[in-house]
Task: structure prediction
Amino acid sequence: MTEVHSETAPRMDRALLAKLTGGLGDSHTLQKLCADFGQLYIEFLPDVFHSETGLTMQVHYNGHESGLMTDLVADLGDNVSLANGQLRNWSPNFVLACGNSFVITLMENLLGALPETIQEPIERPLSQIELDLAVMVYDKIANVLRSGVNASGGFEPLLEKAHNAEDRLKPEEDHVDEYGVTVKLGITLGPVDSEFYLVIPQKALLKTVVTMPKSKSQTSKSKKEWQEQIAEQVRRSQVTLEARIRLESLTLATVSRLIAGDVIPFREKGDVMVDVSANGKDLYRCEFGRAGDRYTVRVKDNVSTEDEILKHLMS
Result:
């Protein structure tokens, strides 16, 4: 019998293949292109925000990182929100990210907080309402991007819903990673310094010519319109309500001996009143009842005005 030996051809090095196919650039080229993006945002993003919010902020370029896209996104850490994006005729898969402290501080400013009361926020994920504001922030960042890259057709950027880093979906098992760069940009609003990021595939970046738009007046919305837009986002946001019913007071000895099946009576003898709250603030006084097989509460009185409720839920 004749033995047949089959040998598998060695796989080409990933980095070498990327260089040969235009997906990995040299350090000098990447440095120049990323610095061009930095200059674009330094020139235009503060004007965009000032024209729409009346707020003064500074943007500065903090350098860049090169690597695989998945690793670059993971390296941004947990204290950011992110949005996947695409721009026709430029890139089908770039990522925008922004430090949570900027979005939180922007929300405080738009709600009229006094400058002396604004401090560096604690590190935490954004609430749903803050994520709604982040959508508008990413829209401005993406539009500056569109205005400065040589994408033909004048198409608008398409952004997916903003999400916290902890909620980002993991890549599929068959996902083929590619090389990218993270353009890092510092942003200062009042006493708070933060960063935002562009994570761009190198295949798109290396074909890009960054140009400065002729006009800086890219937007016309006023601060009032932004506040109204935020308020509308709040009205559409889902809010978890909590209902508290006052029970009869019991001695500690009695409480310590309660077992499954014991009954604690309501404090009220007639209509049982319920305090309904959201985010720790009392909103309504309600009457406890039942409809079919479901327990219900009927609103009897407003503890807070509509404006107070909206302000509280946005903060």
Notes: The CA atoms of residues 128 and 238 lie 8 Å apart. The mean pLDDT is 84.
